[in-house]
Amino acid sequence: MNVRPFCIIYCVVNRYGAYFIGKAIGKHKLAPNVSPNKTVEGFIGGIVCALVIAGGFYYFAELPGNIALVLALLVFLSIFGQLGDLVESALKRFYGVKDSGKILPGHGGILDRFDSLLFVLPLLHILQII
């Protein structure tokens, strides 16, 4: 089974789940020096949203394997995905740029759409999942 499209969907759900839950109930800053708008509640909310979507897909598609192991791996991947987002934000802050490119101005640039995958896909390769 090719899990790459699944990883992309998972990372997108994680990202937007973190954004919306962080905006709705976020109070505690996650890394204020790196990315002042990210919250601990958003971090956890992104993981929960992604687990619900990915776990539901995994369950209803009747994929083989232990669902508890898959969900544990997804939590691990969520943490790495959000770490990729923070690292990319730190690099932009270090170099004093708002956007990582001009293709998507005001949205952090094109790299901001794929920053979580920069950590997740190599990790999956190391674990020999893809």
Task: Describe, in plain words, how this protein is organized in 3D.
With 130 residues, the protein is mainly α. It has one domain (4-126). It has 5 helices and 2 strands, in the order αββαααα. The protein has helices at residues 4-25, 40-60, 67-95, 111-114, 117-126; strands spanning 29-31, 35-39. The protein has a two-stranded antiparallel sheet with strand order 1-2. A hairpin with a 3-residue loop joins β1 and β2. α1 (4-25) packs antiparallel against α2 (40-60) and α3 (67-95) packs across α5.
Q: Brief description of this entry?
A:
This protein has 130 residues and is mainly alpha-helical. The protein has helices at residues 4-25, 40-60, 67-95, 111-114, 117-126, and strands spanning 29-31, 35-39.
Summary keywords:
130 residues; mainly alpha; two-stranded antiparallel sheet; 66% helix; 6% strand
User: The biggest beta sheet, please?
Assistant: 2 strands, antiparallel
In round numbers, the mean pLDDT is 82
Distance between the termini: 9 Å
Percent strand equals 5-15%
Number of helices: 5
| Fraction of residues in H or I helices | 55-70%
If strands are numbered along the chain, what order do they take across the biggest sheet?
1-2
Net shape:
globular
Number of separate domains: 1
Poorly predicted tracts of residues: none
Order of helices and strands: HEEHHHH
**Classification by helices and strands:** mainly alpha
- The Rg value, from CA coordinates, equals 15 Å
**Total number of β-strand segments?**
2
